[in-house]
Amino acid sequence: MIRANKLRIFLADDHAVVREGLKALINAQSTMQVVGEASNGIEACQLVLTLKPDVVVMDVSMPGLSGSQATSRLRQECATIRVLALTVHEDKGYIRQLLAAGAAGYVLKRAAPEELIHAIRAVAAGGVYLDPIMASKVVGGFVRKPVGENSQSMELSDRETEVAKRTAAGYSNKEIAARLELSIKTVETYRSRAMDKLGLHSRADLVRYAVQQGWLQNG
Length: 219
What we know:
- By secondary structure, the chain is α/β, with parallel strands linked by helices.
- It folds into two domains: 7-135, 3-Layer(aba) Sandwich (Rossmann fold), CATH 3.40.50; 151-213, Winged helix-like DNA-binding domain superfamily/Winged helix DNA-binding domain (Arc Repressor Mutant, subunit A).
- It is built from ten helices and six strands; from the N terminus they run βαβαβαβαβαβααααα.
- The protein has helices at residues 16-27, 41-51, 67-77, 92-101, 113-124, 132-139, 158-168, 173-180, 184-198, 203-213, and strands spanning 7-12, 32-38, 55-59, 82-87, 105-108, 129-130.
- It has a six-stranded parallel sheet with strand order 2-1-3-4-5-6, sandwiched between helices.
- It is globular, with a radius of gyration of 17 Å.
- The relative contact order is 0.11.
């Protein structure tokens, strides 16, 4: 029986043993419960859109659709779905791919169990979580000179900052518009201006900048 006050978690991993271990860990938490699972990306998309869990713990490497492909499809179908990627890969390329697809977090499979639980809570609360081991790699090389030579280009208006922060945290333009009581077109304008001022070209770039600035620490 699933209690209404528990976080509803969905597991997508092609290894049954891994799913069973994750299920045992998550169900042992008083505030969480696994509501479904899938062994491939296609099945995951179908079930997630039906069950609408709070967080999807998604393996990166799966048959049918990869984790990034499944994440992109889910975010297109339902922008409120929060995806936490779980993988053995420690390559920056995988992180960029997942963040660009709309994942709200990234945890290594070798992480401690309590770290995964913390990441799930952070993502469910609307934050972005990057595995501490990988965060420095994501930000690495970006801290030295995150934008152009002119520091004036970094000065965002309050609205531009609000929109940029929420975009980095994984919210869609529609969600941001509702929260800030703006039109979607206005949100898009603020987002475009912020990206231009910061010299950024993608959501993955914006997330890296947000990590550097400490915008996502409340997760």
